[in-house]
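W.,

You were right to be curious about this one. When I first looked at the sequence I had no strong expectations either way, so I just let the prediction run and decided to look at it fresh. Below is the sequence, 341 residues in total, followed by the output.
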Amino acid sequence: MKELWVEVEKDDENGSVRRLVSQYGDAWVENCEVTFLPSQKTEKIIPLSSDHPAKDLKEEKKSILSVCISDKSQENLAVAAAKIASYLIVSCANWRIIPFENLIARAKGECKLIAEVTSAEEAKIAVETLELGTDGVLLKTSSSEQVLRTVGIVKPEALQLQMTVAKIVSAKPISTGARVCVDTCDLMTQGEGMLVGSQSAGLFLVEAEVHENPYVASRPFRVNAGSVSMYTLGNLQTTRYLQEFKAGDEAIIVSREGKTRKTNVGRIKIEIRPLILVEAQVGDKVLKVILQNAETIRLVTPQASKSVTELKPGDEVVVHMGTKGGRHFGVSVPDETVIEK
């Protein structure tokens, strides 16, 4: 499992970054010291340079060392340091990919490599470089948004959505309309798909086309996600309309248990098809979604999945209840009064 360390120059007045690190992070870095969570054990970071080379650190074996790679000699220093460190924090002064590729190839397994980054985008490069990636990242930021985005990349298993069960009220065929197939750059399994709904406060889990049938081959990379106007998750904090997706965009895959992982859109396919309006109830709230009316479109249930053409009142399906209130361009505004029907 990859590790997330965070160093913050200045937190906001609500202490949001520190709270996120306490919830999702593995360590807090401050004044050249690492505080591991949740143990609160603290260790010093020892910086290396040409004046303080690794060969002089025999007595500091298994320490937390850091090095900035600016040329080949510094890369060699980092490789030597990896042989005696417990953790090696590495930053790159100029090139950001090749030095990490070389270091991972030459020193992976000697110690835990932690890449110093300043954004979620840099974190993604670090943990995916040479496929193996670094063992974690040290994110230097004052942005709670960057922390949460980085958690989604480095520790996606930590971001689990709360799923609940809704009971079908009705499944009513309506007229034809534009529906969206989301072809992703990943393969999904049974019980996985995308969250889709007419209201951002309640989203149905639409299963990927993972089932074989006599008439159509399975498409485990595809979610036939519904009408162009349906909401889905743009990321774990925002929603967007299905119609807005395009090749290269990030999409969120969700499992029955609420586990999430990111993928990218390979392409979007919009076609005119017969539609069906599905309504389900959680407590006193009625949720709605408009999907293509066909046997291959399935909603995830607590144990399996069921075609929309077979849904009956009382059937149970898996949904995610979002935040109350409204949304402004996909961003939650909890205190806004909004009525969605």
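Here's what jumped out at me. The two ends are 43 Å apart (CA to CA). And, maybe more interesting for your project: The domain at 164-333 is CATH 2.170.16 (Endonuclease - Pi-scei; Chain A, domain 1).

Coffee later to discuss?

I.
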